[in-house]
Structure formats: C-alpha cells, structure tokens
Amino acid sequence: MLKKILVVEDQQEIRRLIRMTLELESYSIEECATADEGAHVFQVLRPDLVLLDVMTPGAIDGLDLCRLIKQEGGEDALSPPVILLTARGRQADVESGLAAGADAYLIKPFSPLELLETVKQKLLHAAGAMP
Known about the structure:
five-stranded parallel β-sheet, 5 strands
C-alpha cells in the first residue's frame, strides 16, 4: 500500500519539486497551498506524513497546523510525522518549529536527496512505533 503524504506549500514551484522528488519512491501525494486547506485535507486524507511550510497565507500558518495535527494525535493515538520546510533558518525559528511538534526541520533551499532521506526515515520510525 502506498504511503500517503500531504504537502502544504504555497509556492507551486516548490510543490512541483517536492512531488517530483517523492514520486521517485512511488508515494501518494496530495498538495495544498494553505494551512487552512491543509487542515481540511488532513481530516479527510489521514496521511502517513505531512510536509509543511511554516509561512502560508490564511487564517492559520504552518506552525498552527503542526500543533493541530499533533494535538489530534493525543496521547492514545499516534499522529503522523510532520516535517517543516521553511526559509526560516534562525535557531529561534527551529526551536519554535520543534516546540510546535515537528519531527524534522528542513531549511530552504533543501536538497531533494535530504528531503527523500528524511521522509523515508520518519516513515520507518512511525511504522516501527505503531503497535
């Protein structure tokens, strides 16, 4: 069964790069341009992993969506890994992302190989953590 990945990124060119990179491993990919839309699609899709830009237009941003995803997982359920992809590379930004519950933090411009390796690692870790 294909792993489902939700990509929330407002820049179409970056979504295209992410899609091309992840399709090398035959993942099922759903794309959204805003965190608001991503929150809705997350509820319907129930992805295995979320790639999330921090700065997205709309009522909520990527950090808000990350918190929502992690809160929904609660203590009894396992939330999917969230990888933040952002141009914000200061230490305070990284700390904010990790405090919001992110499982990894990649700074743009990122290496497609680094992205692919991080996705594989997080999916393997999540599969191993499941009962």
